[in-house]
Amino acid sequence: MTGRKRRFARVRIHYNAHFLTQADRASLPYMSFYSALAVFLLLAISLVVPSGFSLGALMLVLGAVVLLRRNRPHTRLGRDDWLMMLALLSYFFVNAALNLAHHAPGREYDAPLRFVIALPALYLLRTYPPRPAALWTGAAVGALGAGLLSLWQWLAEGAERPGGSTNPIQYGNIAALLAILAACGLARAIRLQHALRWKLLYAAGVIAALMATLLSGSRGSWLALPVCAVMAAWLLVRAGYTRLVRQLGAAALAVLVGLVLLPQSPLSDRMRLALAETDGYVQRADAQSSVGARLEMWRIGLQLAPQHLLAGWGKQGMVEAKHEMVVQGRASPSVDDHTHLHNEYLDALVKRGIPGLAALLVLYLLPLWLFRRQRRLAAGYEARLAASAGVMLVLSYLAFGLTQAFLTHNNGVMLYAFLCSILWAMCQEQPDHPANTA
What we know:
This protein is an all-alpha fold. It has helices spanning 3-20, 22-26, 30-44, 53-63, 79-101, 110-127, 132-155, 168-191, 196-216, 219-238, 242-261, 266-284, 290-304, 315-327, 344-377, 381-400, 410-426, 434-437.
């Protein structure tokens, strides 16, 4: 059997498995609306309300209770579903085992445990997939809210780096993620020829979220945007939209040049500051600046990591070892108060050794492979778009982790765990139905 025939055989089997569960799903018709509402709220209020993402996540977890009914729907989970769950579970089990080894306090189990909590939500979403519009519209509304909030804090409150109710780095990174998802919604609206008002909503969301990212001064989020832009351009070229890619590329270049040349531009100011701080650390070992402190922490991490490769230092052990280096004059006092190393990969290696770093890479690279594979196998546009968004989600987190330990923060953990679950459910083949394309 040729590769093409095998591909369509798998798709046909997947469709058949899906249709076999339609009678079961009809017994609770409101659940698809419920999951769609939860998905919408997860993103729509993620940055404008303190811990706003928690409401949608909680709804998805509590909604999974309906799956305990005796006549519950029977959703067939395939190998790839179990692999996605394995990526989330392995991160929890490795971190929990190492926390036990280091006698860590109970609060250190909180972040890894959230990956386990996302599993009932994943099963609920596989059983009652939300309407695709719920995610894309939620992202656009959340992006608009983030942009308006950051503009208010910048103009009315005089905040130098707006950060909503979180810190500016997390705020800027999540705003960049909302911009990427809103851009996917815009591409979908153009492809499906939606009304102009929807295209304007998504476009406004992209612009507002990019403005929030720019005002936050989060340079780590600026690393993710070009990566995702290149991937989006590649997908559009493969789909035959070469001319559109050229037009969008020219427009993006013009906007970027304008931002750089704009007087007192936050973009150019932050880039010049980064270069000056880097030069200050290289030339004078000045670790009192933002970039200097990061470089100092990375230097410390590279010294500490080889000493405990098998299980790491543990969080408290790393903090104490870092403090001892400061006391001995081997490290700058500017790094003494930090509980992570501002690099996801180095932080995992130092705190949890090779097993911790391996679990982190599985958490990122296994879903990346699954989303990429699903995009190649999917026949429907909605499924391919969701899979593409899944790839960009993981690529964004890989970029965020270069300058920030993103998963040490509650919002970073929750959004990754639940967006992986949502996008994975959405990139499975759905039957053609008006509700799935509206």
